[in-house]
């Protein structure tokens, strides 16, 4: 789909950063349609951004340009990565890694078309450099004139740890995300059945349900999040706060 740009950043909404970035998109491509994936990536957190991109991209139509404005390393090269269906405009810091495991890269371009950049003070590459390029790419659907084609090996990548089966039917997992409700999302995708027991920080949880029916406030149970991962929930409360859990906390999952 031409002119569709999906934006992700760690800017939040308190300041003018998101507004001026989006204004730059429209200034360079008045026909653009801009969708906000989220602007609440944890600041400078490329793992958080990678997870959110993986869980979002598949809901967008072919031709979408993903603009990734999470840029903790201002020395990272700026890339355009194309896949069979999509384009990604991003610093080369590994954020597309998890998406590219499912939607492999076809080409990588180092952005060189600096005549599209806008002047600005300070380090604001998301607005001044990435946004004008994303706007042009959404319009013309080709990275060819926006950068130099490079080997795919230049794309920086990382992986999220997989669950470890330490005994038959018993897995050591970790929390990979905590959503806005305080739900603890694990690095284990649903196997088609719910666990019989989950243990986290000494707390054993044996309730499991695919929905919230008949749940009591504060009750812990295991469910499946919208992207197919097991999650620990405290109904109408924050499981993260009550269980004193953070990203990376170990969780034992038994079937």
Task: Outline the structure in words.
By secondary structure, the chain is α+β, with helices and mostly antiparallel strands. It has five helices and 15 strands. Strands 8, 9, 10, 11, 12, 13, 14 and 15 form an eight-stranded antiparallel sheet that branches. Strand 9 and strand 10 form a beta hairpin. The longest helix is centred in the middle third of the chain and has 16 residues. The mean pLDDT is 96.
- The tally of helices reads 5
How far from one another are the termini?
43 Å
Shape: elongated
Biggest β-sheet description: 8 strands, antiparallel
| Class of secondary structure makeup | alpha+beta
**C-alpha Rg, in Å?**
20 Å
Annotation, overall tally of beta strands? 15
What is the string of helix and strand elements?
EHEHEEEHEHEEEEEEEEHE
Give the strand content. 25-35%
What tags apply to this protein structure?
255 residues; alpha+beta; 8-stranded antiparallel sheet
Give a quick summary of the entry.
With about 260 residues, the chain is α+β, with helices and mostly antiparallel strands.
Write the layout of secondary structure elements.
Blueprint: E1 4-9, H1 17-28, E2 33-38, H2 46-54, E3 65-69, E4 78-83, E5 87-91, H3 97-102, E6 105-111, H4 125-140, E7 147-150, E8 164-167, E9 170-178, E10 184-189, E11 197-200, E12 203-205, E13 220-224, E14 229-234, H5 239-242, E15 250-254
Parallel strand pairs: 1-2, 1-3, 3-5
Antiparallel strand pairs: 4-5, 4-6, 6-7, 8-9, 9-10, 9-15, 10-14, 11-12, 11-15, 13-14
Helix pairs in contact: 1-4
